[in-house]
Amino acid sequence: MKIVVNKREYEVIEEPEKHILVSTKKELHGWWPGKRECTSERMLINPYNGCGIGCFFCYALAFPGHFQTFCEKGIITVAKDFDRVVAKQLDSIDIASCGYLSPVTDPFQPLNEKYHLSEKIIRVFIERNIPIEFITKAFIPQEVIELMKLQTHSFGQVSILTLDDKIRKLLVPGGSSTSILFNNLKRLANEGIFAVCRIDPIFPYLTDKPKDLTELIERARGAGVKHIIASVLDIPLRIKEKILKALKSHFGVGIEWNYRKLYQEKIDAYLNARIDYRKKIFHLLGNICEKKNITFALCMEYQLKEGEAVGLNQEFMSSRNCEGINIPIYGRKEEKFYPVSSCSGECLNCSDPKCGIEDLAMSKDGSRKDWCLKDYRRWSEKRRCFPNIR
Questions:
Q1: Phi-psi group of 224: left, alpha or beta (phi > 0 → left; psi -120 to 50 → alpha; rest → beta)
Q2: Residues 143 and 118 sit within 8 Å (Cβ to Cβ)
Q3: Which segments of the chain does DSSP mark as H helices, in order?
Q4: How much is the mean pLDDT over the chain?
Q5: 22 closest CA partner among 42, 3, 40
Q6: Residues sharing a CB contact under 8 Å with residue 193, sequence separation 6 or more, in sequence order
Q7: Distances in Å between the alpha carbon of 386 and those of 326, 339, 389?
């Protein structure tokens, strides 16, 4: 079987699930432009476009390009030899921020067992002593943990939506069981790797009961978690009916009706639950975390004020950085990279850049910029030595 994507023909590989191999020149890049809430810089890495985890609510299903190949045909695009591409890009710069694997699709989805791109990319970062993080709903390969424990600032995030495995199976059919996910956290923490639990997203009327959320946080803390990140489901307008249809199919017409009533706030291309509902949930979670002596933050949560989207983290976040860990900018010294002294990585609120990069002192002009590989190269040309790296 063959398909045509962007006027090019590709052979569809059937096993272990339908996918195509695509040579790529795509580059490491920072946060997308727009409503940036993330305090720290990240270099975003997506080796797979499409995901075998199978979340019907995935916002990537509304993305263009190869993501539409997955949305419409169920065919995942694999970036061929992407670890080598990433390695060449890292070797072309002298300034780096933490890698982020991956912000769109699960790095340890079933197809990764065939290509192991995620492990290979993590190794590329660790060999250069550049920190890297991941988010997953799947089992973390032991090789990943063995690699990441070698690098001081690398960390892992595990997304656990509910303690109820019956509901989890409907929401995340290709993900790992709740027990495996908690064990992921324990395995990270036992090796001294900072472990984050994401309750992300919370589903109104399904996974939002205070008792269940309290128990989930307690279990996460018991597994060694020091930070919780949460959000309430938002619905991309482009796939709104698809999501509502899935909710109706899995949970009944009453749930679909309740969602149509609750989701009334349009912010850009997304429908959000009413702000009073969301704030009530976030106050609850923040209070639970405070009592358990762990930090808390939100992910991509906004409210409208005078027609503008304003982030909610300033109201609810109890950590210095969104992900609960302070990761400095790194600079090259000979073959490896080292952290910049006295840098907390809080670029969005920085006015005195210890790294010497004025662009990253974004509190000076209130900017919330996105950066790309050419910016890292430009900074590298200006800063060929780093007297203040550790």
A1: left
A2: no
A3: 66-73, 82-90, 112-115, 117-127, 142-148, 165-171, 178-190, 210-222, 240-251, 253-262, 275-291, 313-316, 373-382
A4: 94
A5: 3
A6: 145, 148, 149, 154, 155, 156
A7: 20, 10, 6
Tokens standing for residue 175? 């993900």
Cα distance between residue 34 and residue 314, in whole Å: 17
pTM value?
0.95
Cα dist. 234→169, 269, 270 in Å?
A: 20, 10, 6
Q: What is the DSSP letter of 227?
A: E
Contact (Cβ atoms closer than 8 angstroms) between residue 313 and residue 339: no
Distance CA 364, CA 71 (A): 41
186-222 residue pLDDT tens = 999 999 999 999 999 999 999 999 999 999 999 999 9
Q: Is residue 363 within 8 Å of residue 349, measured between CB atoms? A: yes
Q: How far is CA 30 from CA 22, 26, 40, 97, 124, in A?
A: 22, 13, 10, 9, 18
Contacts of 139 (CB under 8 A, 6+ apart): 108, 176, 180, 184
Q: Which of 204, 163, 154, 207 has the alpha carbon at shortest distance from 181?
A: 163
